[in-house]
Amino acid sequence: MNGATIDVALGFDAHYAPHAAAVIASAVRAGKGARFRFIILHPGMTDEMKRRLESVAPGATFVWREINPRDLPDFDQGADLKHVNASTYLRLGLETLAPADCHRVIYLDADTVVFGDLAELWRVDLAGAPIGACPDTYVNETDFADRWGLPRVDAGYFNAGVLLIDMDRIRAERAFSKCLQFIRERRPVFADQDALNWVFWGRWRALDLRWNVQRDMVIGSLAAMLPAAKRYSGDALGVVHFTGKDKPWLREAWHPWAWAYWKHLARTGFLPEIANRHAISPLHRIRMYARYWRRRPTLKRAMA
After folding, report:
1. Residue 64 and residue 76: Cα distance in Å, rounded?
2. Which of 8, 94, 216, 284 could form a disulfide with 222 if both were Cys (CB 3.0 to 4.6 A apart)?
C-alpha cells in the first residue's frame, strides 16, 4: 500500500460542512504529501459548497455521493444525542456508494482533527477483521452486551468516529445494510454506533488509542474515572475526536485541542462565518491557545 492513494470518507450535511472542511485541511496538512481521495456522503450539497470544500485540498480527488434522507431510518434524537443529527447515518452508505475500486477506507467524523499522517493508519494490518476502531470511553461494553444478548468479549465496544474499513468485507457481508436494518427494527440509543457494534461484536481490530483520542481520555477529572486501558498517555496524537457536547466551535466549551480546530479552519475560508456564528473573536482564540499551554494533557512528547 506504499504510495497508494488514501481513501478518506466523511458524511455530513451543509450545516457541518465548515467543520468537515477543517478535518480535510488537517488531514492534508498532516499527510506529508500523501495522495488523498475524499469520498463525501451527503444529503444534498450545492455546487458552490462543493467548490468551497474542494478548494481546501486542491491536489486531492473528491467523490460526491448524495444520499436521500428518505432512504435512512428516522433519527430519534434522545437526551444523549442532542449534539448529533441524522447525518451520523451517512457513513453506512459506503457499502453501496463507495467507488468500486475503493477496497479500504478511513472514515472520519466531522468533529475530528488529524494530527498524524493518515498513511500510518492506512497501513495498519486488520488481521482479517472487517473493521478497525478504538474503544469508546462512554458506553459500558458489559451493559451493551447484556442489553442485546451478546456474549461478553474482551474486544468491547468501539467508538465509530474513526474507522479503518475493509470495504471488500463490508460489501460481501452486506454489513452496513444489516446495521440499517438493526436501527429500523431495534431503535438503539446510540443509533448507528450501536448498530455497528452489534454487527461487528467480537470481530473488530483494536487500533492504537492515538487514532481516536476522545475527550474523556485527556480531561483529568474524566480520565480518572476510566480504566487504565482507555486513558491516553501516548507519545503522539493521531486523530483528536471532539466527542460529546463540548465542540471546539462553541464559546463556553473546553477542550485542550480546540485551538487546533480553529488553526485548520483558518485554512478553509469558513473561519469568518463560524467565528461570527459562535461569537469567537481572535482574542478568544488566542486565549484558547494560552489555556492549552496552561492545562494541556501530559503526553510523552508535547504536541504543539
Report:
1. 26
2. 216
